[in-house]
Design a protein that fits this description.
heterodimer, A: alpha/beta, Rossmann fold, Arc Repressor Mutant, subunit A, five-stranded parallel beta sheet, four-stranded antiparallel beta sheet, 9 helices, about 40% helix, about 20% strand, B: alpha/beta, 5 domains, six-stranded parallel beta sheet, six-stranded mixed beta sheet, 26 strands, about 50% helix, flat
């Protein structure tokens, strides 16, 4: 996965957003659990520049104890750690807290990603990744933690698309889009988790029920219809992004 | 093997000479083209001037078949009115009245409608044959009566119209019409196979590939059995000496004796060795009713054992004449060898009443009969005996005694009669006869006994004074002494001749066995085959368990490489014996002086270059040692086995060396390719980064941005390359298993374009995916990698043009994806080569980095999906099209997609 992050090199990062985040009194604290010092360094520099407090751990054991001791707001966890299996670290963290966890994994580790998501991870990122992608994931994950908003209060806006869950109304360029019940349910699930990956299994279980976890072809077909109605070309999607082998993600504007 | 016809002829039941010839066109299933072949053949005969008529042929409206009816005389059919509808049947009378030379009659297994002359058509055919008319007919193998159960099991269809097997066996000619299942299914799909409406459902199940393959095998076997029989009778008729490479059938006769199980096991081994089918037969006689319960149980147990060991088990209701019952059945089933137990001998009574075994041996002129012994001390000898094979009949001492004594009694009677006509002294000659006889039939010891007995009898009855042992006459004394000398000498010579004959027979048998073994070993392809042949041969000829132990390369530890029956571990004692034998190169273990407590005897497998392994044998029957014969056999096999194993070792190490060389070549080519492909982007990255580090503040802002972009792009390229490397490695190890899921191609294309955003900057990628394209059942991540490589290549080899086309559509039930560029293209003779992993390396092309592996990986990934990839010419006379093809898979559930075309450009 790459690279819909900005082309702007870090040296040029001085957009107004930073100022506001830096100005915040209680900056969010992020724990980075990765054994690779170079990766920790680049994450520390970038995240600090974006106004986050950064705590680091080089091993799984250290990560688990930091997660308890430092009480971070978010954890970035590399699944390939030298001492512990990343999944074990994740479950140990989950035993004590609901802190959102973003896992880092290599490509072709799709099964591993799904397992981590099932194991309570908030989201995942494929290595190598651009910093823009990571920041978007972090924002989405922190937003979920902070909202506490009832789904019916959510109104999603991106480009020409407005999805108003309270009124069960979806409009594109001001015109109402007629969605079937399943299509609407899929969109609703994506909107509630906007910016975060939703796995195939989650969608199938929520929309079709737990007995339909194998029927991925239904999901493909309904997502196809949904995209068609939203005028969203899968070959260059604006709204519904495909996470191959894992699920879908609703793109947000941030 | 004996065919019915041959036996019948021998028994004097030969068919009337005027009988017509029957030719059967045999097929595995409807639709393979039997009728067609029959008509083709008939047309040929008709052209040769033979008078051919079509008595009844169903073409089912197939045009090609109809066309073959042209020019042939077609007889009218007989119409019968049954309850439901009229039936058109064969008009036998019309055929008989017309008297052609050859009549064509389809489907010999057909059951006639009520009111016909016979209930079954084959009887009609027999009538026609009787009248001296030749018949061509067709038959589907599932109609054969003996296969009925098998067919029911395989196809879950109970065939009602059955044909007795004799009809097929009596056919003068069988032609097998063969068609591979795939072709037949294709013909069915094209509607070329006639299927009655009401049977359509059943038929569709019937025509599954599995069924057809099984039926095809049955048909081939049915035909092959016949071919065997034909060849055999030909060879017999022309005095060609055996052994004949044919399919044998062995029959073992089970009786209530304790020997039964031994018989059955011996037969199984023999059948295994011959790769023959075998039948265990038991004849239930009235006498059996009076048997004790444990004897009855023993019969049942034996039959169950036979069944477990793979025999066909048959109980024949029998009369008193068990032997002829058995022979009749053997003839009926085309049995080639009969195995019987050696009869138990209980004193003199047995000598007057012939045992079943004797009767069998005497009467079974056209069978090989094997008599399996019941002695406890030696392993049963199952070698075929020449018929009548009684010289080997070593009876117990009671019988020997009886025979010897009786022979003297006869000689005495004869002498008494002769005495009335000839002078006394010459009578002694008569007593030489039983000596000779005993020497040949029973052995030296008994001939000496007979000599002495003869001496006494002559002395007692025929010398003066009679009825005393005293000898009065000097002449008599001389004759008697002479008699004794001659008798002893003759007995000695005769028994020696007998021993020699026996020894040479044994030698011939041993040679034959070794020859058979060396043939088998020479034919064995790999080491495992050789080892298997060794253990199997040793086990079956010595009636023992056997093992081969070899040392692993670069190790001195011996491991069991083959065993018959399979054996995993040696006891401690046996392992010690093996170890000793291996270290000292001498036999050790059972029956030797070293480590006797091992149940196994190990002999080294020795070649000119040293010991390659050990051969182990173990006997379960309590034998104390090998007899010399067995010993010789074991040594001979060990020698041959050693040579064969060494041969395969050499072949393997040559193969290893070759693989190693190739691997080395590949590795160095791969390394040079990888280092090139890795270094190219690194050069840009390091160059740009050092520029920024050293002169960052002197470089204008736009240029700085430019350098940073370069770093990013090249790093991404490096990432793609590394991914290819990983995939290649996993493909090479066979570890890449596609995780298939229903996937929308548009999704994959979207992802690939996203990842290639920068590499495709400035290109106009035109996407045209057919609106009705079904979902693909693929691994989305791997397919993305394929498209990524293709699009990247298209951009790389664009030769300055800026258009790339991606099309996807359905063609011939396959999903086709094409990526086309407008670059310089690939010369036609190199289009296949580009998928070779090292093609670019070999071509020495260092112009463009990162493509050496891409297409090779694409091919690997497509193959992992059951698809194909090919390089074609571009679309408008220039450029290249890479075409992917995936089998279309039907989605579970009948929902279809109706998405509109996503034809659109992406930059």
């Amino acid at each position: 996965m790459t690279s819909n992050e900005s082309d702007v090199p870090p040296a040029d990062e001085n957009n107004p957003d930073d100022a506001s985040e830096l100005a915040r009194g209680d900056a969010d604290k992020i724990l980075i659990v990765d054994d690779e010092p170079q990766i920790r360094k680049f994450l520390r520099i970038s995240l600090t520049a974006h106004g986050y407090d950064v705590v680091e751990a080089a091993t799984g054991a250290e990560g688990v104890s930091q997660a308890a001791g430092e009480k971070p707001d978010l954890i970035i966890l590399d699944l390939g750690l030298p001492d512990f299996d990343g999944h074990q670290v994740l479950s140990k963290i989950r035993e004590r807290s609901q802190t959102p966890v973003i896992v880092l994994s290599v490509r072709a580790g799709e099964a591993e990603k799904v397992r981590a998501l099932d194991g309570g991870a908030e989201d995942y990122l494929t290595k190598p990744f651009g910093i823009g992608e990571l920041l978007a994931r972090i924002r989405a994950a922190l937003r979920k933690r902070g909202d506490g908003v009832e789904p019916r209060e959510i109104v999603f806006r991106k480009g020409d698309l407005i999805a108003d869950l309270g009124h069960r109304r979806v409009t594109l360029r001001g015109e109402e889009v007629k969605l079937s019940r399943k299509e609407y349910d899929i969109l609703k699930l994506l909107v509630i988790n906007a910016g975060r990956v939703v796995t195939h299994q989650q969608i199938l279980s929520e929309v079709w029920g737990p007995n339909h976890l194998e029927d991925t072809h239904y999901l493909r077909i309904h997502v196809g219809h949904l995209r068609q109605k939203l005028d969203d070309d899968p070959a260059s999607p604006t709204y519904i992004l495909t996470e191959p082998g894992v699920g879908y993600r609703l793109a947000t504007d941030d | 093997m004996t065919t019915n016809r041959e036996t019948d002829a021998a028994d004097g039941n030969a068919p009337a000479p005027a009988r017509g010839r029957l030719k059967i066109f045999l097929g595995a299933a409807p639709g393979v083209g039997k009728t067609y072949s029959m008509l083709e053949d008939a047309q040929r005969r008709a052209r040769d001037g033979i008078d051919v008529v079509v008595a009844l042929v169903e073409t089912h409206g197939r045009q090609e078949t109809d066309a073959l009816l042209r020019g042939l005389e077609i007889l009218p059919r007989r119409t019968l009115l049954s309850r439901e509808r009229p039936h058109q049947e064969l008009d036998v009378d019309a055929v008989l009245a017309r008297r052609p030379k050859l009549a064509l009659i389809d489907d010999i297994a057909h059951a006639n409608a009520p009111g016909s002359r016979h209930t079954k058509r084959y009887k009609d055919v027999q009538d026609i044959l009787e009248a001296g008319i030749d018949v061509y007919t067709t038959l589907n193998v599932q109609h054969l009566e003996s296969l009925n159960d098998v067919i029911a099991r395989i196809a879950r269809i109970r065939v009602r119209e059955t044909l007795p097997d004799q009809v097929l066996e009596q056919a003068d000619e069988i032609e097998l019409i063969d068609l591979p299942p795939e072709d037949l299914i294709e013909r069915l799909r094209q509607g070329k196979v006639f299927v009655p409406e009401q049977a359509a459902r059943a038929i569709s199940h019937f025509f599954s590939r599995g069924n057809l393959t099984a039926l095809r095998e049955l048909a081939m076997r049915a035909a092959a059995e016949r071919v065997d029989a034909e060849m055999l009778s030909y060879m017999r008729a022309h005095g060609v000496s055996g052994p004949w490479p044919t399919r044998d059938r062995v029959m073992v006769c089970v009786h209530e004796g304790a020997l039964g199980q031994k018989l059955v096991r011996a037969t199984q081994r023999m059948a295994d060795r011959l790769r023959a089918a075998w039948i265990a037969v038991h004849v239930q006689t009235p006498r059996e009713e009076g048997l004790k319960d444990d004897a009855k149980d023993r019969i049942q147990e034996t039959m169950r054992l036979a069944e477990r060991l793979g025999a066909e088990v048959v109980s024949l209701p029998g009369a008193h004449d068990v032997a002829s019952e058995l022979l009749a059945y053997a003839r009926q089933r085309n049995v080639s060898r009969i195995v019987v137990g050696r009869p138990r001998t209980r004193g003199l009574r047995q000598m007057f009443k012939k045992s079943v075994t004797h009767t069998l041996v005497d009467q079974a002129k056209s069978f090989e009969v094997m008599v399996v012994g019941n002695e406890e001390d030696t392993a049963p000898d199952t070698t075929p005996l020449a018929v009548p094979g009684l010289e080997e009949f070593k009876a117990s001492s009671w019988k020997d005694f009886g025979l010897a004594t009786l022979s003297i009694v006869f000689a005495g009677l004869l002498a008494a009669i002769a005495e009335m006509f000839v002078p006394l002294q010459t009578l002694a000659v008569i007593f030489v006869l039983p000596v000779l006889l005993t020497a040949v039939r029973v052995g030296l010891i008994w001939s000496i006994y007979v000599s002495l007995l003869g001496f006494e009898v002559y002395n007692f009855f025929f010398t003066e004074p009679r009825f005393t042992i005293a000898i009065e006459n000097r002449e008599d004394l001389f004759v008697l002494s002479l008699y004794l000398a001659i008798a002893l000498l003759t007995g000695n010579i005769a028994s020696r001749v007998r021993d020699q004959a026996r020894a040479s027979r044994q030698a011939a048998r041993r040679t034959a066995r070794l020859y058979e073994f060396s043939q088998r070993v020479a034919g064995a392809a790999g080491r495992d085959d050789v080892l298997w042949a060794v253990v199997h041969h040793v086990a079956s000829t010595l009636q023992c368990r056997s093992l081969v132990l070899l040392a692993k390369p670069k190790s001195t530890k011996l491991t069991i490489e083959a065993g018959y029956p399979p054996e995993d571990e040696l006891t401690e004692n046996a392992a010690a014996a093996a170890d000793w034998s291996w270290k000292h190169g001498k036999p050790a273990g059972w029956s030797t002086d070293t480590l006797q407590s091992s149940e196994w005897l190990f002999v080294p497998l020795r070649t000119a270059s040293g010991i390659v392994g050990l051969l182990g044998v173990a006997f379960d029957d309590g034998t104390a040692s090998l007899n010399p014969e067995q010993r010789r056999l074991l040594d001979a096999v060990a020698d041959q086995a050693a040579v064969a194993i060494e041969r395969t070792n050499l072949a393997a190490s040559m193969q290893d060396a070759r693989v190693l060389t190739e691997t080395e070549q590949l590795r160095s080519a791969l390394l040079s390719s990888i280092s090139h492909d890795l270094r190219t982007p690194l050069v840009s990255i390091i160059g740009s980064a050092t520029s920024l580090v050293n002169f960052g503040d002197k470089i204008p802002r736009d240029s700085r941005h430019e350098l940073l972009r370069t770093i990013l792009e090249e790093a991404e390229r490096l990432n793609r390359f590394v991914q290819n490397l990983l995939d290649m490695t996993r493909l090479g190890y066979g570890a890449l298993q596609p995780k298939r899921d229903w996937t929308d191609l548009r999704d994959i294309v979207g992802r690939a374009l996203e990842r290639l955003k920068r590499a495709l900057d400035g290109f106009n990628v035109s996407i045209d995916i057919a609106p009705d394209l079904p979902l693909l059942f693929v691994d989305p991540v791997l397919m993305e990698q394929v498209l990524l490589n293709l699009l990247e290549n298209a951009a790389k080899y664009s030769g300055g043009t800026d258009r790339i086309y991606l099309r996807a559509f359905v063609r011939d039930n396959k999903i086709v994806i094409r990526v086309t560029d407008e670059g310089p293209g690939i010369p036609e003779n190199e289009r296949e080569l580009v998928f070779d992993m090292f093609y670019r390396v070999k071509a020495g092309d260092t112009r463009i980095a990162g493509t050496g592996l891409g297409l090779a990986i694409c091919r690997g990934l497509m193959q992992a999906h059951g698809g194909t990839i090919a390089a074609l010419a571009g679309e408008h006379g220039r450029g290249t099209t890479i075409e992917l093809s995936l089998p279309r898979k039907e989605m579970p559930g009948a929902e279809t997609t109706d998405e509109k075309s996503a034809s659109r450009s992406a930059a």
